[in-house]
Amino acid sequence: MAAALSDEDAPALHAADTRAAGAGLCDPAAVELLTTEGPAAVRALAALGAPFDRKTDGGFVLSLEAAHARARVARASAGDSEQVRQEVHQCKEAHRCQGFRESIA
């Protein structure tokens, strides 16, 4: 899950990367929502038990991937990504989230 989780990153930087990668096809409101609320969402999932990889200081292990200019992809070790997906699904069910869309991949 990509989010501005490090001290060297910010939602505005993530949004700029997303807009640049989207080449004019991104919905500005969706980009703003996802990049602004993304860090809190990842932290909330971690607090619920989603097994994101962590550094010894407790911070998230972040990868530099795709069109991101900074390392901001919080990941789970092999086999744990399914557990992260399950945590998202359980959170959605518990809070009866409206407008939640399952991954199509």
Q: Helices and strands: which structural class? A: mainly alpha
Q: Walk across the major sheet and give the strand order.
A: 1-2
Unreliable residue stretches: none
Anisotropy-based shape: globular
Query: Main sheet?
Result: 2 strands, antiparallel
Number of helices: 3
Q: Could you give the order of the helices and strands?
A: HHEEH
> How many β strands by DSSP?
2
Describe this structure in words.
The protein starts with 10 loop residues before the first helix and ends in a 10-residue tail after the last helix. The chain has three helices and two strands. Helix 1 (11-22) packs across helix 2 (28-47). The longest helix is centred in the middle third of the chain and has 20 residues, at 28-47. The chain has a two-stranded antiparallel ribbon with strand order 1-2. It has 105 residues and is mainly alpha-helical. The chain has one domain (11-95).
Quick structural summary:
The protein has helices at about 10-20, 30-45, 80-95; strands at about 60-65, 75.
What secondary-structure arrangement, pairings included, does this model have?
Blueprint: H1 11-22, H2 28-47, E1 62-63, E2 73-74, H3 81-95
Antiparallel strand pairs: 1-2
What keyword list fits this structure?
3 helices, mainly alpha, two-stranded antiparallel sheet, 4% strand, 45% helix
